[in-house]
Write a structure and sequence with these properties.
The complex is a heterodimer of chains A (about 525) and B (about 300). Chain A has about 525 residues and is mostly beta strands. Chain A is built from seven helices and 31 strands. The chains are: A mainly beta (about 525), B mainly beta (about 300).
Chain lengths: ~525, ~300
């Protein structure tokens, strides 16, 4: 038998403190005296543990947006007479804000507190499984997510919707907006941001101090704006102390503002080394981290900085991401485009609650072994696009804003640069093309900014996708505690390729309503 | 009349008592936890009791109450641990009405020895004490039941001492009490056709390669008590009980009223009523009735 332990943080509306509630399924759980917390009874009101489905990418694809799913947890809420249940008595709750234990007087219907006294939406919920009476340290983490608004679906049942832990990343990536003071064409629009290095269309701010003024980073500092084009023709940079004349521009690095001499510029484009808040970064892992920090969806402590740094150390990739003014791109979508630029790239909120960015592992020690008929019901193949190997990869990189027409005065190199929006690397695996006439052709639009990185990534993507990696459902009989997305498990089954066992990559997991009905979504490593 | 009288207690006066204890209790599991359900929320002490300094729970009511049964549910004490219940006629606890000590002053154990040599194999874990084998005792939730000759008490005192177990059978350094019960009771014999049922529950998953895997769950006991000849006083008492407890309030049940501790261990405990109360008349003054119960596991 498995007990599900639910730990949820909730905002106590009356006191403004965050309270940590501990709930469990029946028949109930109480920690041991040598556990921390000692001898704490878990409130046994979970009628149905969270019913969830999360996956790292669109199931089956190597590259694709991280899927955000919604499930639900049901809490019992029957009316207790005195002494007949937890309702009506004081219950110990940990006050996270104060760092001390406190008691909350439960109403006769105990779950009513979550409807009336607390705000749950957006707060974290963690599910563990534990054997009855076992030490708390033996509990295995099953799931981490965030809650939505609770609803009293019936008078005696409260349902709390639970979303995947990536749900907070659905917030807009640009937090600041232009105000009325910036003129009516900009008022209310989000401020543009530029992370890493790229060629961007600057935002026109109007005439300031008698000069046409452009902005590339929403008023935040940048590292450099080393080339300014108009219809492909370069302007000459002058120091900020000099007033530019026709054909000249000057840059204020502390605000990311560019002022040009002469009239308003046709089809402006700027090569920017972007956001320098706290130091300039241009490599993929660091840019992803900067984007998340600047958008305010996660504190620095909630980012796995080691993983981001490891990615940049192993394969430094210069990237640039420009979020134009007025865009309402979410952090999740921005991370998708960043991490979707490299082979096996992905992002997720890990078992420890921290944002992980990097490449999905292709080898490693399996976290568990599942054998068909022993502790798993066997692999069930899922139809997916990944079944067919890719014969060709077209990877596009180095996007520029294309002007309506390139001026004849532009240099040959600049004219070539602005002739098309993208540069491209096109690779074909002849072996796969010969074997699979119907092989896939994969097209990727990336944020990569140099040709060498693009060529290397294109080769990695082709190598990754030119192998058939079927996706399977793996229903397991334990609840797969501690096995999250991007984990590796070993599977022995009498399906081709698994007779003697093979490692697979967990790309998703689904927990059904009843105990012990977890399904891992796995694919070839 | 049957040799075994079943016991039902439907009104618990334990939550209504004002409890006090000289024992130190865990900050997060105070003594008051055992005054309410859920069973899984247990009051926990910080240390074990000894015969000289036992874990003591004292309770006082505002006036005298009928007491015919007292119990402590979901303890973690071993069967050899000592337990004593004293009932007093006054709030100062000087006028003793009842004491679990026998005439010679000997205390009883959590599980009173059966001393049936025919059931004891040489070398078994219960060879010398004559109670149940430790491994059999661990199969059941540990409850202490005390059946009291009816008294009107004003106060009670529980004393507990001896060894205790963790859930995994290792030695524990503390005492846990899930729920306390004290109150009046109804005692009657069960008729032919009464049934004790244990449902292990669990989820059975048929495997593709044959066979099945089973996800175990908390099993539960159920009772069906048949009374073929239900005479007026008992009939009214059973009907009153149905009104009083509904399907959601707990009742305490003992199959043998303490006469056979092993039987009481296997089937005694906290139950909830299930189904309707119906009296089927077999004679103008005698009715027939079946009452169903399901164990409270939480």
């Amino acid at each position: 038998m498995t007990l599900h332990l639910i730990t949820l943080d909730a905002y106590h509306l009356a006191s403004g403190h965050v309270h940590r509630w501990r709930l469990c399924t029946t028949p109930g759980y109480q920690s041991r005296p040598d556990d921390d917390p000692a001898s704490l009874p878990w409130l046994p009101i979970v009628a149905r543990p969270p019913d969830i489905a999360v996956s790292i990418t669109r199931t089956g694809a190597t590259i694709g947006p991280t899927r955000l799913s919604v499930g639900g947890m049901t809490l019992a809420n029957t009316r207790n007479g005195p002494g007949e249940g937890p309702g009506g008595r004081d219950w110990p709750v940990y006050d996270v804000t104060a760092g001390a234990w406190t008691t909350v007087a439960l109403p006769a219907r105990p779950s009513n507190v979550f409807l009336t006294d607390y705000a749950l939406a957006g707060w974290p919920i963690i599910e563990h499984v534990v054997a009855p009476g076992a030490a708390l340290t033996s509990a295995g983490l099953v799931f981490r997510g965030v809650m939505e608004m609770p609803r009293a679906v019936q008078r005696h049942l409260v349902e709390v919707s639970v979303r995947s832990p990536e749900a907070p990343y659905g917030e807009p990536a640009q937090v600041d907006a232009y105000t009325d003071a910036d003129g009516e064409t900009l008022a209310g629009k989000t401020r543009e941001r530029t992370y890493g290095t790229c060629v961007v269309p600057p935002t026109y701010l109007g005439v300031i101090d008698g000069l046409h003024t452009y902005s590339v980073n929403g008023g935040q500092p940048i590292q450099a704006a080393d080339i300014f084009w108009s219809r492909g023709v370069r302007y000459t940079p002058v120091p900020w102390t000099t007033t530019p004349t026709i054909g000249q521009y000057r840059v204020d690095l502390t605000t990311g503002r560019i002022q040009v001499g002469g009239g308003q510029v046709e089809s402006p484009a700027v090569h920017v080394e972007g956001d320098a808040t706290g130091g300039y970064v241009s490599t993929l892992g660091a840019v992803a981290r900067r984007l998340v920090e600047q958008s305010g969806v996660a504190l620095s402590a909630a980012i796995d900085t080691a993983a981001a740094a490891a990615l940049d150390t192993a394969t430094p990739r210069t990237v640039g991401l420009h979020l134009p003014a007025g865009s309402s791109l979410t952090v999740a979508a921005a991370l998708d485009s960043l991490m979707g630029s490299i082979a096996r790239g992905g992002w997720l909120v890990g078992e420890d609650g921290r944002l992980w960015v990097g490449r999905l592992p292709s080898s490693g020690d399996p976290a568990a072994t599942y054998r068909q008929g022993v502790n798993a019901a066997g692999l069930t193949p899922r139809a997916s696009a990944a079944d067919v190997p890719a014969k060709r990869v077209t990877l596009r990189w180095g996007a520029v804003p294309v002007p309506a027409d390139v001026a004849t005065a532009a240099t040959e190199a600049d004219a070539l640069l602005f002739a098309s929006a993208w540069r491209a690397v096109d690779l074909t695996n002849d072996t796969v093309a010969a074997a699979y006439p119907g092989g896939r052709t994969v097209e990727m639009d990336t944020v990569l900014q140099d040709g060498l990185s693009a060529a290397q990534e294109a080769a990695l993507v082709l190598a990754d996708l030119s192998v058939s990696r079927p996706v399977y459902d793996l229903p397991v009989t334990d609840t797969a505690p501690g096995i999250g997305r991007a984990a590796i498990v070993h599977v022995v089954d009498d399906i081709a390729g698994f007779e003697t066992g093979a490692d697979v990559l967990v790309i998703g997991r689904e927990t059904n309503r009843r105990a012990g009905r977890a399904t891992l979504v796995v694919r070839g490593i | 009349m049957s040799a075994w009288q079943a016991l039902l207690s439907d009104t618990n006066l334990f939550p209504a008592a004002t409890l006090s204890s000289p024992t130190a209790w865990s900050a997060l599991a105070p003594l008051s936890l055992c005054q309410t359900l859920p069973l899984s929320a247990r009051a926990a002490t910080l240390a074990l009791g000894t015969a000289e300094a036992p874990v003591i729970i004292e309770g006082v009511w505002s006036d005298r109450q009928f007491v015919a049964y007292a119990g402590l549910f979901q303890l973690n004490l071993r069967q050899s641990a000592g337990v004593r219940l004293e009932l007093f006629g006054d709030a100062a606890m000087t006028e003793t009405l009842f004491d679990t000590r026998d005439g010679a002053g000997a205390d009883r154990a959590v599980f009173p020895p059966l001393l049936d040599p025919a059931t004891i194999r040489f070398g078994a874990s219960h060879q010398f004490r004559g109670d149940l084998p430790a491994e059999d005792f661990a199969l059941y939730p540990t409850h202490v039941h005390v059946v009291v000759p009816l008294v009107r008490a004003r106060a009670f005192r529980w004393s507990l001492w001896g060894e205790a177990d963790q859930a995994d059978g290792s030695a524990a350094g503390h005492v846990e009490i899930g729920h306390g019960w004290i109150g009046d009771s109804l005692q009657f014999a069960r008729s032919t056709g009464s049934a004790d049922t244990y449902d292990p529950r669990g989820v059975i998953v048929e495997m593709a390669g044959g066979g099945a895997i089973v996800e175990p769950e908390a099993g539960g006991r159920a009772l069906s008590i048949v009374r073929d000849v239900l005479e007026r006083p008992l009939r009214d008492a059973v009907t009153d009980m149905a009104r009083r407890v509904g399907q959601h309030r707990p009742v305490a049940y003992l199959p043998t009223s303490g006469a056979d501790p092993a039987e009481d261990l296997r089937w005694g405990g906290l139950y909830q009523r299930r189904g309707t109360q119906s009296n089927t008349w077999s004679y103008p003054t005698i009715a027939q009735s079946t009452i169903a119960f399901e164990e409270i596991v939480t």
